[in-house]
Design brief:
The complex is a heterotrimer.
Chain A (H helix, E strand, L loop, with lengths): L2 H10 L1 E4 L13 H12 L4 H14 L5 H4 L9 H13 L5 E5 L7 H18 L2 E5 L3 H7 L2 E6 L2 E7 H6 L4 H9 L19 E14 L5 E15 L4 E5 L6 H9 L6 E6 L2 E2 L5 H7 L3 E4 L13 H11 L8 H11 L16 H14 L4 E5 L7 H18 L2 E6 L2 H7 L2 E6 L2 E7 H6 L4 H9 L9
Parallel strand pairs in A: 1-2, 2-3, 8-13, 8-14, 11-12, 12-13
Antiparallel strand pairs in A: 4-5, 6-7, 6-9, 9-10, 14-15
Helix pairs in contact in A: 2-3, 3-5, 5-6, 6-18, 12-13, 12-14, 13-14, 14-15
Chain B lengths: L18 H27 L2 H8 L4 H38 L5 H10 L3 H29 L1 H11 L1
Chain C lengths: L1 H10 L31 H37 L1 H16 L2 H12 L3 H28 L2 H8 L4 H38 L10 H10 L6 H28 L1 H4 L2
Classes of the chains: A alpha/beta, B mainly alpha, C mainly alpha.
Chain lengths: 460, 157, 254
């Protein structure tokens, strides 16, 4: 096919929507200009006519006051809005095929639901063929009629959505479906209701000053965490859910005193963390550790696994130079890594293995509280299941108190004993996991749960 | 080069005699700017929004000139300020080599002769040039960035 | 090249001051491989001695730049906030000044000396170093493994030393090797203008300057030092580029 013919097909027959709406629109051009381009180039349409069509298209994807937003730049739009613009742009020349490559992966769960509904409606209205690429089985089950499963560049299974998800044939598909954490927690509770809470958080507030306006002269205080009360017993896993920007990560970091809070009290086994001086705080830190989201950034790339794990042991005097190797080996066993790999550098490991190293580092100082900030969000679904399993096992073995922060409700349901739902810096609902999932009280919790796609048989 | 073979007149002042010195002075910076633009262009062409533009079926020419160029120019513009400063200092050497009675040579002579009034005056003049050029570069950078441009427009209102 | 420069006093065929007026300027011959200047001084010897000065300037001025730049950049990057803003604005202001004006002013005020030359060149070159270091520190500072180290209860000093420093070492080494040639070039510029090394000492810059004056009669006096300088600069630049490619984490990882 010649270049010109290829461009013709791309412009008129196939539309494409990409994963990350924040980067897939040109930041230097207004969205209007970008929408007009396909019309001017491929339909040879007049500017006025094209403008009318473009505004219609924006209306159709649910952008209000399309007329006045026509000359806006992408940075003035939120992620969900940009994805709507992308969809409008992909469909503006009325193609027959739409390829959507993980179109909702970068979006929050409620926005995700809106975009999926929009895609479904447009698919019906325009009688479109859609190739929907996604790693999220729930979303695929909701969207697709036919499903193709790929592994290592090869198509391993193909069939109707119901057939693939409810009677998978290929071992890889089975593994994928089985790895999906949709069930309740498989372990019994490790604590009694009457246990004294180990971590107590009272009225915690954290503020950031945000500089805005010209030459950053305006200064406003933004309250990321707004009067949060929490308690956590030993052996208990508390899930903290909320959408991005709800302040759940900041809450975790405030408890860790990685960010200074502006009001409230955090006490650990009766010791108030807020008033410790720097030296005492450093010594105290071995009692509470953190596991971070990105296993690629949370390990020092210039230190071997041995150095990474030995450092905290030696620092807190938990091992002498002589028996540090023994202790490191023990940690490697704990997190299920081969002892022979301790001389390797982080970049020689896969994402899942790195997260195991990060877990081992947190465990090295034998803490009693672990704050896990989205520890499985950066991992593939099958690896995710392994890491969750590991965390559950370790919590049981060492009777850890764990605050498990995640945006993924399925994961939280699988791992947490209790769940707290966070919205704009506040805890809006808190309760036993199954109770909360089965009978959510707060409207925000309900909307979160409604937006989640489970594997369920399609109705039609 | 059209000038090869002929002797450069001492203290040449006609426009034609400026070509060789200008080339000497400019060539190094041209090479560096070319490298910057290349880097910027490569960086920009690997962006997601270029993929979007290609998916729209736009011609390669349109992708490069309408979509990529503005993003690619940013590092070039930010180098413009220091480049002007560099050119001014470069002129000292070039003016000496080609025996051009320019500001650079005057300045150098003033420095050797300890002519403090002259040095002071010329320093202020140079500083003025540089500030103006840096200002122009900054304005250009703001104009190229829609976010900054809009902020500025709102302030003006 | 460095070895040659160090060994110069022993391998140089003639003394750099030794004049042979009777000989006058001669083109390259078997006795004087690169010819002699009008005072009958052996050009090869002078270039070798020149290399000592040029490379010395290169290394010392680079060290000056390294010290100031790394300290300045690290502090600005690690402390951040208002301190960072003030420190970097200061760098920006200096960055916009043409270095020659700056150095001429220094020579005017303090007179000419080798020490001043080192300091002046170092004072110009540290700006870029400070920027690079600051950028690196800022990028590293926000990585999660630094947060993890804080959470582990490590002291500030230990974090800087064990976790931040090793991760910015690569770019610093690379930039240092790239600074040396630019410093040598700068010194040549200055010597060329007559602001640098004074006779009878010679550096490549002053040799070239002298060569230009006489290039129509004695071209070899211009060609040899110029070629030597260019070759050295090329070599050092290639070394720097090579190091950058070798140490670039993106190239060696994954």
């Amino acid at each position: 096919m010649s270049q010109a013919r290829l461009r013709e097909v791309r412009g008129k027959k196939i539309g494409m929507v990409f994963q990350d709406p924040m980067t897939s629109l040109n930041p230097h051009m207004t969205i209007g200009e970008q929408l007009l381009e396909p019309l001017l180039v491929h339909q040879k349409m007049g500017r006025r006519e094209a403008r009318r069509r473009a505004i219609e298209a924006l209306d159709e994807v649910g952008i209000r006051q399309a007329e006045s937003r026509f000359d806006s730049y992408p940075y003035e739009f939120s992620g969900g809005m940009r994805q709507r613009v992308m969809i409008a742009m992909a469909l503006i020349n009325k193609p027959q095929l739409l390829i959507a490559d993980e179109p909702t992966t970068a979006l929050d769960v409620t926005i995700q639901a809106q975009i999926l509904a929009l895609l479904k409606r447009l698919q019906k209205d325009h009688n479109l063929a859609v190739i929907f690429i996604s790693h999220d089985l729930g979303v695929v089950a909701h969207m697709a009629d036919e499903v193709v499963v790929m592994e290592k560049g090869k198509c391993v299974e193909k069939g109707s959505a119901d057939a693939v998800f409810f009677s998978p044939q290929h071992p890889y598909t089975r593994k994928l479906v089985a790895a999906l954490p949709t069930t309740a927690k498989p372990y019994p509770k490790q604590y009694a209701e009457t246990d004294e809470p180990f971590l107590k958080v009272n009225g915690l507030c954290t503020e950031f000053s945000v500089r805005g306006g010209f030459l950053r002269r305006k200064q406003t205080n933004f309250r990321a965490v707004d009067g949060v009360d929490l308690c956590l017993r030993k052996g208990e896993i508390l899930g903290l859910v909320g959408e991005s920007g709800s302040g759940k990560s900041t809450l975790g970091r405030s408890i860790m005193r990685l960010v200074e809070r502006s009001a409230g009290k955090v006490s650990l086994a009766g010791v108030d963390l807020a008033h410790l001086d720097a030296t005492k705080l450093r010594r105290m830190r071995r009692d509470f550790q953190m596991i971070f989201q990105d296993p690629y950034a949370s390990l020092n790339p210039r230190m071997t696994v041995f150095d990474t794990l030995a450092e905290p042991l030696l620092l807190h005097g938990l091992a002498s130079k002589k028996d540090v190797l023994q202790a490191v080996n023990q940690l490697m066993d704990d997190v299920g890594l081969d002892r022979r790999m301790i001389r390797k550098y982080p970049h020689e490991f896969s994402g899942g293995q790195r997260q195991r190293i990060a877990i081992a580092r947190a465990l090295a100082v034998r803490p009693q509280l672990i704050i896990a900030d989205e520890p499985v969000s950066a991992l593939d679904v099958t690896i995710q299941a392994q890491i969750l399993e590991l965390l559950l096992k370790l919590t049981e073995k060492y009777r850890l108190a764990m605050l498990f922060i995640s945006h993924d409700l399925g994961v939280v349901r699988y791992i947490a004993d209790r769940v707290a739902v966070m919205q704009s810096g506040k805890i809006v609902e808190e309760g036993e996991t199954e109770e909360l999932f089965n009978a959510p009280q707060h409207p925000y919790t309900r909307s979160l749960l409604a937006a989640v796609r489970h594997l369920e048989k399609s109705s039609g | 080069m059209g000038l090869s073979g002929c002797r450069y007149p001492v203290g040449g002042v006609s426009p034609g005699d400026k070509i060789l010195p200008a080339l000497t002075l400019g060539a190094g910076y041209a090479a560096y700017l070319a490298r910057l633009s290349r880097g910027g262009m490569l960086e920009t062409l690997s962006q997601d929004y270029i993929r979007t533009a290609r998916a729209k079926g736009l011609s390669e020419w349109r992708v490069v000139w309408r979509h990529a160029l503005r993003g690619a120019l940013a590092p070039v513009i930010s180098f413009a300020g220091p480049a002007v400063a560099g050119l001014l200092s470069g002129s000292f050497v070039v003016e000496t080599i080609y025996q051009i009675p320019g500001l650079g040579r005057f300045y150098l002579q003033a420095a050797f002769n300890r002519d403090y009034t002259m040095i002071l005056g010329m320093t202020i003049l140079f500083a003025f040039f540089i500030i103006v050029c840096n200002l122009l570069a900054d304005i250009l950078a703001i104009w190229l960035n829609p976010k900054l441009r809009k902020n500025l427009a709102e302030k003006a209102r | 090249m460095v070895v040659l420069a160090l060994l110069t006093p022993w391998i140089a065929p003639y003394s750099y001051e030794e004049q042979n007026l009777a000989l006058g300027a001669t083109p390259p011959s078997s006795a004087h491989w690169m010819g002699t200047d009008i005072f009958g001084r052996d050009q090869l010897t002078r270039i070798l001695y020149g290399s000592r000065i040029s490379l010395m300037v290169g290394f010392i001025a680079t060290s000056v730049a390294l010290c100031i730049g790394v300290a300045w950049g690290t502090i600005a990057g690690y402390v951040g906030g208002r301190v960072d803003a003030v420190m970097m604005r200061f760098v920006d202001v200096l960055y916009a000044l043409p270095f020659t004006i700056f150095i001429i002013l220094l020579t005017v005020v303090f007179g000419r000396s080798m020490l001043l030359l080192f300091l002046a060149i170092g004072a110009v070159e540290w700006l870029t170093m400070a920027r690079i270091v600051r950028g690196q520190v800022m990028a590293i500072k926000h990585q999660e493994f630094i947060e993890a180290a804080v959470a582990m209860g490590m002291s500030r000093g230990r974090i800087m030393f064990r976790h931040v420093a090793p991760n910015i070492l690569g770019p610093i080494i690379i930039y240092t090797t790239l600074t040396i040639p630019s410093v040598i070039l700068l010194e040549s510029f200055l010597s060329f203008l007559g602001l640098g090394i004074q006779p009878p000492e010679s550096s490549w810059g002053s040799l070239i300057s002298y060569g230009v004056e006489t290039m129509e009669e004695y071209p070899w006096l211009l060609i040899f030092p110029a070629v030597t300088l260019s070759l050295t600069l090329f070599a050092l630049n290639f070394l720097g580029d090579g190091l950058r490619d070798a140490l670039d984490p993106r190239a060696s990882r994954d």
